[in-house]
Specification:
This protein is mainly beta. The protein folds into 3 domains: 42 residues, no CATH class; 123 residues, Immunoglobulin-like; 121 residues, Sandwich (Jelly Rolls), CATH 2.60.120.1330. It has 3 helices and 21 strands. Strands 1, 3, 4, 7 and 8 form a 5-stranded antiparallel β-sheet that branches. The longest helix is centred in the first third of the chain and has 22 residues.
């Protein structure tokens, strides 16, 4: 099968066929086979014209993460051949690499002044650096920017050019990272759990106490054990110990007739719980007579970060 000359554009695009070598009459089978073979030739020519095997290179850049001051952070570019996998170390060339790291403080222009230079290395399938953001050079609130270019790789004998990469994000303190996941952050849902044995004398018993900062109670549930309420016990009630109590479960809802095996008494709403305010369960009538341990769970949110029920 004849190969196209580089100037034979129409033949390349529309599948010019070379059937001159066919002996005798040219059959439909001859034409079909020639068409398929010529399309393969065309495809190979196009691939070569567009850079050959270099087009098989794939790159993946690591994330631009927020970094704690004085911590290490890895920045990496993964290099893969879509046919064979990771590019071998020997086929990765960083001799022409350009890598810079710059800092912006308070919205000012980025500058590399006073920063430890960033030097990338290589391994099978990647170019990377484990960079330390020294506390002497970086402070919370700074923004870093890393730019890398000039990396090449050999893929199937052809040279592939790795796209320029940029990373940028904030420098933070450990406290900032912790706050992002701390349930005591203002407005974030929290849970508190306790137990109480109803085999006790008539009176009020503390379930939870507001601590550190005020919270808003959103729901509360009391789950009975696998036993029916009885003995001298006539009811339970849950409320705050305020001068005007915030009623959560009243004695009617908590009547002993409702304290069946594994029964659940629940409430939802909004009650403000200042620091020092108690949420109490009151036993009506008297002791149950045998152990009757209930689980109590409250859901709440801090009004100011740090608020909790203890």
């Amino acid at each position: 099968m004849a190969r196209h000359e580089s100037g034979s554009l129409l033949g390349l695009l529309f599948g010019q066929l070379d059937v001159a070598a066919a002996a005798g009459a040219v059959t439909d089978t001859d034409l079909f086979g020639a068409y398929i073979k010529q399309n393969v030739t065309n495809t190979e020519w196009i691939v070569a014209a567009l850079g050959g095997a270099a087009g098989q290179l794939r790159t993946v850049q690591s994330v631009s993460a927020a970094v704690e001051e004085d911590a290490y952070q890895q920045f990496a570019i993964s290099l893969m051949d879509i046919d064979t996998g990771a590019i071998a170390l020997a086929d990765i060339d960083i001799t022409g690499i350009t890598a810079t790291i710059e800092k912006s403080t308070g919205g000012a222009a980025f500058s590399a002044v006073g920063l430890t230079p960033i030097v990338f290395g290589k391994a099978n399938g990647r170019v990377f650096i484990d960079y330390r953001f020294l506390a002497a050079e970086w402070a919370a609130g700074d923004v870093y920017k890393i730019e890398v270019s000039g990396i090449t790789a050999t893929v199937g004998g052809d040279t592939a050019y790795v796209p320029a990469m940029v990373w940028s994000n904030l420098i933070v303190e450990q406290g900032d990272i912790s706050a992002d996941t701390d349930p005591q952050v203002m407005g974030r849902a929290q849970m508190a759990a306790t137990t109480i044995d109803l085999n006790q004398a008539l009176g009020a018993y503390v379930l939870f106490t507001g601590a550190t900062q005020a919270v808003v109670l959103e729901s509360l549930v009391v789950r009975c054990p696998n036993i029916i309420g009885g003995g001298a016990l006539t009811s339970i009630a849950v409320a705050t110990d305020d001068v005007t109590p915030g009623v959560i479960i009243d004695a009617l809802s908590g009547a002993v007739a409702n304290l069946t095996a594994e029964a659940q008494l629940s409430w939802s709403g909004d009650i403000y719980i200042p620091v020092g305010t108690e949420i109490e369960l009151t036993i009506g009538g008297g002791a149950h007579g045998v152990a009757y341990v209930c689980d109590v769970v409250a859901k709440y949110r801090a009004v100011v970060s740090g608020g909790a029920l203890t």
